[in-house]
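Self-study notes.
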Amino acid sequence: MYNNKKKIERIGKDFLFFCKFMFIVMWELLIYAIYRDFSSFVDRLSHRLASINILYVKLFQAFALNNSLIDESLNNKLLKFTDNAPWTEEDINYEELEVIKRDYNLILRGGCVKPINSGMISLVFKGQNQFNGLPMIIKMKRKNIEEKLADAIQNLETFLIFLSFIPLFKKYQISEVITKNIDIIRHQTNFIEEVDNMERMYNNCKNLKYVKIPLPVREVTEQYPNIIVMDFIEGIKINEINEEDMEPFAKQVIKFGFVTTIVQGFTHGDLHAGNILFIKDEKGGKYKHKIGVIDFGIMYDLNLEFKGYMFDIISQLFETDPRETAIKTLNSGIVEPHGILQKIPKEHYENIVQFATEMVSENINVSKKANQIQIYKFMSKLKEYLSNSELANIGIRPSDNLVKSQLVLAMAHGVTFTLCKDEYAALSDKVINELFHTELLLDK
């Protein structure tokens, strides 16, 4: 009896949410049909979707980027909701915040309880140690966020069932992309894990003079699992960077990505514009341009074999024949089981290699752009091809790394291309040579 009642309540909630969602979308589409202002349409729709379920901004963004419907400017508008999500006073646990302030001698900036950032999971406050004057960050989970997130995910999963019947959504398998990343989103509520990630990244990067990682006060989170207190990093946002500083900052972002992925094998899984601070230090000498990286709720560990493949591919990306690069990429662990490509019918193998080769050739040799949207589409095309019944019977399937990488690429898109514009390939090549001295490797 109790279970039946819960099911009925769940169905009612999902139906009500579906009605709200459809009303918002249809109303905004009507306004767009009248005024034909796509930028305003994206802005209004994102605000209204975020107000009922912040996860829908990620859904809309993944779909829009996948279909080249938005440019970098609109992408950044969507990304801002990950740092400025709607919040109310009911989201703040005032009692716990007062305890932290008292026990750790902190005062809030200006003495007011107003977050400087508001994400899906947390609210971020700027504080100050009242004894030494050092600025600190207090990151606090929204009140009852676990229950709210579970409810939001249930809404999302139910709505994805409806989307699966729409051909365009089905074609690009957006439902699968979002579903696969739900577990990643859940991990962001585990602050002990985030403190572990932060400390590990801090130690990994402590000798990198162009990167700053905040150091957390572990004892705070161990005693109060809903709060992280950490160092404050002074920096500016991507939209505040001067034109002459864009390329130097872009190099540091690319360098950070290469080092943490290929060398260290422990990399940031949500490296969007809101999670990078840009620091110009006139007294920094060689390292005048630095980046501060924050928010370590989503991280990826790469195994040694995958790291080896990626180093080989990246270090020779602009010199190796596109077909060879394509084959190496396909064998890098983006499909499972490992080595299965050598066992499938030759016709299917050649088809997969051919469109992978065309993708590499287009991005590197023709357009000179390592366009992440194109890579994202390549991943979708590969996944679509692998769903072929004959291949499915063989057992070949896209790896979890491939599926999860789609959302990561979409979220990182705004940073690299806002900074680099059309110079990404050339700048990446330069950074790779500086890091790994690939001219020497190739000469040998």
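Second protein, same conventions, sequence then structure:
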Amino acid sequence: MKITSIKIRKLLIDEKLKAIVSVTFDDEFALHDIKIIQNLDKLFVAMPSRKTVEGKFVDIAHPITSEFRNELQTAIINEYNIALTQNGNQ
């Protein structure tokens, strides 16, 4: 499966939540509401999730392998950094 498009839907500069992203795979499948979150000194990617009745958040969709998770996270954060540069915020 190839990542064919990454779109930064919403860019938030001075928040813990930095961006909301959509990713398209193989020009055939889109995944929306991926979040880029600032945690201390590191950015990480959070998959779309829902809150259970117990109050826990569980992913609705997520990578199965750590290799693909790393590939996806790297691509998303790279696109986020490009968006920051284009908006003059880096």
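Instructor comment on the second fold: The first strand starts at residue 3 and ends at 11.
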